[in-house]
Amino acid sequence: MRKERIGIFGGTFNPVHSGHVRAAAEVQKRFCLDRVLFIPSYIPPHKTTEEIAPARDRMRMVELALRRRRRLVPSPIEVRAGVTSYSILTLKKIKELHPRAWIFFVLGVDAFLEIETWRQWERVLEQCLFIVMTRPGYRLGAAKKALGKTFRKKILDVRPSSRVRESWFTAFRVFCVPIRALDVSSTDIRRRVRRGESVRESVPPAVERYIKDHRLYLKRRLGKQPAHGH
Ligand code: ATP
Question: From the CB of 132, is ligand 1 less than 6 Å away?
Answer without folding.
Answer: no
